[in-house]
Design brief:
Number of domains of chain A: 2
Number of helices of chain B: 9
Oligomer: heterodimer
Order of helices and strands of chain B: EEEHEEHEHHHEHEHEEHH
Distance between the termini of chain B: 44 Å
Shape of chain B: globular
Number of domains of chain B: 1
CATH class of chain B: Alpha Beta
Number of helices of chain A: 13
Number of strands of chain A: 13
Structural class of chain B: alpha/beta
Helix content of chain A: 55-70%
Strand content of chain B: 25-35%
Strand order of the largest sheet of chain A: 4-5-10-7-9-8
Helix content of chain B: 25-40%
Bound molecules: adenosine-5'-diphosphate, magnesium ion
Order of helices and strands of chain A: HHEEHEEEHEHEHEEEHEEHEHHHHH
CATH topology of chain B: Rossmann fold
C-alpha cells in the first residue's frame, strides 16, 4: 500500500464521517493553535522589545545609592562631583553622563496653581531618553552659560497651567522663582524605559538648580546614568565603577553601597518573564495536544471495530498486516494533520489579532509552521499506532465474519 | 494442485466442541470445476476458507501447489490471497464507500501495480463481467447481480489460478444466478480452476465434479457426466423485458 493510496482512502473516510472527524481533531486544533499563537506573539514581543531597545541603544548603565543597604536613620553616602569627573575621564566609549534630580514643587501661572514633579536634567537627557519636542526648543549651552531660568513642559502640565493660551515665552513660578517656558515636549508614549517623568513633569536645567538653589555647594548625586557606544564598554565600565566605588567608599556590612544596573539585564528579565508565559502556554498546549491525541486514539479504536469487516475484506483480497497497519496510521496522521493545519490557521489568526491590537509586528516563520506540522504528524503516529496494530493483527476470517 | 489430508477444524464453544470439519481428505487438480455441496452447517464454508488460505485448520496438512500452507508466513499467505486465488462471497463483500472501479482495483494496489497497469487491468476485468458502463457506480447504486459481477471482476483482476466462490448465487434470483454461473463456466473454459460452494443441486450440476459434505466429513465425491450449460439455460429462461407474456408462459410449459 503506498502513501497516496492511503491518503486517498483516509480522505474518503474523513469525508464520510465529517462531524466525527471535526470533533476528533478539535483537541489537536486547539493545542497547535496555542503553540502557534504563543510562538508568533512571543516573536512579535521580542521584536518590539528589541526595536524599543534599539531606540535607547541598550548600552545604558546607571549607578544609584543602594537604599536597602542602609538602616533607616543611617546617613547615606552619595557620589560627588569628583566621582562624576572620574567616570567621565576613566570610562572609554562613554557618549554621555547625566544625573537627575527631581522633587515636587508648587507651580503656578497667573491664577492656576498646582503641585507637580520638577526634574533637573542635563542637556543630554532628552537624547538619552528619546524625548522629542512638540513646540519650542531644547536647553542650549547658551542657557547654561548665562544661567537662564528656563523650563520645558510636558503637555499635560502645559494644558493645566495655560489652558488654551500659548505657553511659549511665558513666565511660570516654581517654588516662588520665575522660569521662562521655552518648549513643550511630545506626549509620552508607552516606552519600555523611562526617566521617571510623566506627562505632568516640568524639566529645568540642572545646572541652574545646582548653582542657584544649592548655591554652589559641592553637588552630591544619588543617581548617575551613562550611555556608551558598545556593550563591551558597558562591561568595562561596570567593572571599573564597581572597583572605584568599593575602594573609595568601602562596603557596608558586606553590602555594596551603590547599585549598578544595566539596560541589557532588563532585556534579559523581559526575556525571562516571556519564557515563563511561554512555558505556561506550552503546558496548556501540550495537555490539549495529548488529550487530543487520546481522542484520536479512541476514535481510531472505534473505527477499527466498526470496520472490522472491511479489514477482513481487504485481507481476503491480499492486504498484508503491514498494509492494514499503514492504512490506519495514515488515517490517524491525516486526522491530526487536518487538526494541526487548521490549528495553524486558528493560532496565526489569534496572533494576528493580538499583534494588531498591541501594534506589534506580525511575523510567522516557516520553521514554526513546519514544527507544528511535525508535532501533528508525530501525535497521529504515536496515538494511531496502537489501534492500527490491533487492526493489523486481526485474523482474516474472523474479521470477515464480523457482523458490524 | 490442492491436497488436503486429515483436515479437522474444531471450535471450542465453552464446554462443547464443535467439529466443523472432521477429517477431510481431498485432492483437486488444475482446471477442475468443483462444487462442494451439503446442508447448512455441514462445514462447507469452513472447508472453503481453509483451502482459500483465509483460515487455518486445527489439524491435518494442506499442500497448495506443492508448498505446505501451515509453514507459510502471514505475508506469504497474503500474497497467495492476492495473486494466486480470488474470492467471491455470498454477500458480495464489496467496500461500500468505493466505486466499482475502485473495488476492482484494490487487489492491484496491494499487488503493488502502478497506475497504468491498474487502469488497464481494472478496465479489462470489468469488461469481462460486462460492467464497463457501471465503473463509476457505488455498490448501493447497483443490483445484486451487478454487485456480484463486480466481486467476480475483483476476484479475477490479478489473474488468479483458482477462484473460490462461497454460495455466489445465494443472494440472487435464479435468472441472475444462471448468468453468474454462465460467467463461471466461461472463466473455467478460459483455464481457471473453480471451487464453489452451494446447497442447490441445480447450481451444482454446472460443475464437473460434486463433493458431498455432511457433518464435517466427505460422504460423496462424483463426476458429473454431462454438466449443464448455464448460458443455454439462461437464454431459455423467460426474460419479460424482451419476450411478451404469452411467449414467456409457453417457454415454461
Ligand atoms: N467461528 C465459529 N465459531 C464456532 N463455530 C463455528 C464457527 N464457524 C463455524 N462454526 C460452526 O461450524 C459448523 C460449520 O459451519 P460452516 O462451515 O459455516 O457451515 P456451512 O457453510 O456448511 O453452512 C457449524 O456448526 C457452525 O456453527
Ligand atoms: Mg456457509
Amino acid at each position: 500500500m503506498n502513501i497516496t493510496e492511503g491518503l486517498r482512502q483516509s480522505l474518503d473516510v474523513i469525508r464520510g464521517n465529517k462531524v466525527r472527524s471535526f470533533l476528533t481533531m478539535l483537541g489537536i486544533n486547539f493545542g497547535v493553535g496555542c503553540l502557534i499563537a504563543i510562538s508568533v506573539v512571543g516573536l512579535a514581543f521580542r521584536d518590539s522589545v528589541n526595536s524599543e531597545m534599539g531606540r535607547y541603544g541598550s548600552t545604558l548603565l546607571w549607578v544609584q545609592t543602594n537604599w536597602r543597604a542602609y538602616a533607616s536613620n543611617e546617613s547615606r553616602i552619595y557620589m560627588s562631583g569628583r566621582d562624576k569627573k572620574y567616570f567621565e575621564s576613566a570610562l572609554p566609549g562613554m557618549i554621555s553622563i547625566e544625573s537627575i534630580f527631581d522633587a515636587n514643587y508648587t507651580v503656578s501661572y497667573q491664577g492656576n496653581t498646582t503641585k507637580t514633579t520638577v526634574m533637573g536634567v542635563e542637556p543630554a537627557h532628552f537624547d538619552m531618553f528619546s524625548v522629542h519636542m512638540e513646540q519650542g526648543r531644547l536647553f542650549m549651552d547658551d542657557d547654561l552659560i548665562n544661567k537662564r531660568a528656563v523650563c520645558i513642559l510636558r503637555p499635560d502640565i502645559a494644558a493645566t497651567l495655560f489652558e488654551d493660551e500659548d505657553p511659549l515665552g511665558k513666565m511660570i513660578t516654581i517654588n516662588d522663582r520665575n522660569f521662562k517656558v521655552i518648549g513643550i515636549t511630545e506626549r509620552m508614549g508607552q516606552g519600555f524605559i523611562s526617566d521617571g517623568s510623566d506627562n505632568n513633569t516640568i524639566f529645568v536645567s540642572q545646572d541652574y538648580v545646582a548653582t542657584r538653589i544649592w548655591g554652589g555647594r559641592d553637588i552630591r548625586y544619588w543617581f548617575l546614568i551613562m550611555k556608551f557606544d558598545i556593550l563591551e564598554n558597558v562591561d568595562l565600565a561596570q567593572e571599573r565603577i564597581t572597583h572605584y566605588l568599593n575602594s573609595k567608599y568601602g562596603k557596608l556590612r558586606g553590602e555594596e553601597r551603590f547599585q549598578i544596573e544595566r539596560l541589557d539585564t532588563y532585556v534579559g528579565m523581559v526575556d525571562k518573564i516571556l519564557n515563563i508565559i511561554t512555558v505556561l502556554v506550552l503546558v496548556i498546549a501540550i495537555i490539549s495536544i495529548v488529550v487530543g491525541g487520546l481522542g484520536i486514539m479512541n476514535i481510531m479504536l472505534v473505527a477499527v471495530t466498526e470496520r472490522t469487516r472491511e479489514i477482513g475484506i481487504r485481507m481476503a483480497i491480499g492486504a498484508t498486516s503491514r498494509d492494514i497497519l499503514v492504512q490506519f496510521v495514515i488515517e490517524s496522521i491525516s486526522l491530526c494533520l487536518l487538526g494541526g493545519g487548521t490549528g495553524i490557521i486558528f493560532g496565526a489568526s489569534l496572533a494576528a489579532i493580538a499583534c494588531a491590537i498591541l501594534k506589534w509586528k506580525f511575523m510567522i516563520s516557516l520553521s514554526i509552521v513546519l514544527g507544528a506540522l511535525f508535532i501533528s504528524t508525530s501525535i497521529g503516529l504515536i496515538f494511531g499506532i496502537y489501534p492500527s496494530y490491533k487492526a493489523s493483527k486481526l485474523m482474516p476470517i474472523e474479521a470477515l465474519r464480523s457482523e458490524v | 494442485m490442492i491436497s488436503l489430508k486429515g483436515i479437522r477444524k474444531i471450535y471450542q464453544m465453552g464446554e462443547i466442541e464443535v467439529k466443523a470439519l472432521d477429517g477431510v481428505d481431498l485432492e483437486i487438480e488444475e482446471h477442475e470445476f468443483v462444487c462442494i455441496m451439503g446442508a447448512s452447517g455441514s462445514g462447507k464454508s469452513t472447508l472453503m476458507n481453509i483451502i482459500g488460505c483465509l483460515d487455518r485448520p486445527s489439524e491435518g496438512s494442506y499442500t497448495l501447489d506443492g508448498s505446505d500452507v501451515s509453514s507459510l508466513t502471514s505475508r506469504e499467505l497474503a500474497d497467495i490471497r492476492n495473486r494466486k486465488v480470488g474470492f467471491v462471497f455470498q454477500t458480495f463483500n464489496l467496500l461500500p464507500r468505493m466505486t466499482a472501479h475502485r473495488n476492482v482495483e484494490l487487489p492491484l494496489i496491494y499487488a503493488g501495480n502502478n497506475d497504468k497497469e491498474r487502469k488497464k487491468k481494472t478496465a479489462l476485468a470489468l469488461e469481462k463481467v460486462e460492467l464497463s458502463d457501471r465503473a463509476k457506480h457505488k455498490p448501493n447504486e447497483m443490483s445484486g447481480g451487478q454487485r456480484q459481477r463486480v466481486a467476480i471482476a475483483r476476484a479475477l483482476v490479478n489473474d488468479p489460478s483458482i477462484i473460490f466462490a462461497d454460495e455466489p448465487t445465494g443472494n440472487l434470483d435464479s435468472r441472475t444466478g444462471l448468468a453468474i454461473m454462465a460467467l463461471f463456466q466461461k472463466l473455467h473454459r478460459e483455464g481457471a480452476t473453480i471451487v464453489m460452494v452451494t446447497h442447490e443441486m441445480d447450481i451444482a450440476l454446472h460443475a464437473q465434479r460434486i463433493i458431498h459434505l455432511k457433518d464435517g466429513k466427505i460422504i460423496g465425491d462424483e463426476r458429473v457426466k454431462k454438466s449443464r450449460d448455464a448460458e443455454a439455460e439462461f437464454l431459455a429462461v423467460a426474460d419479460l423485458d424482451h419476450d411478451n407474456l404469452s411467449d414467456a408462459i409457453s417457454k415454461h410449459e
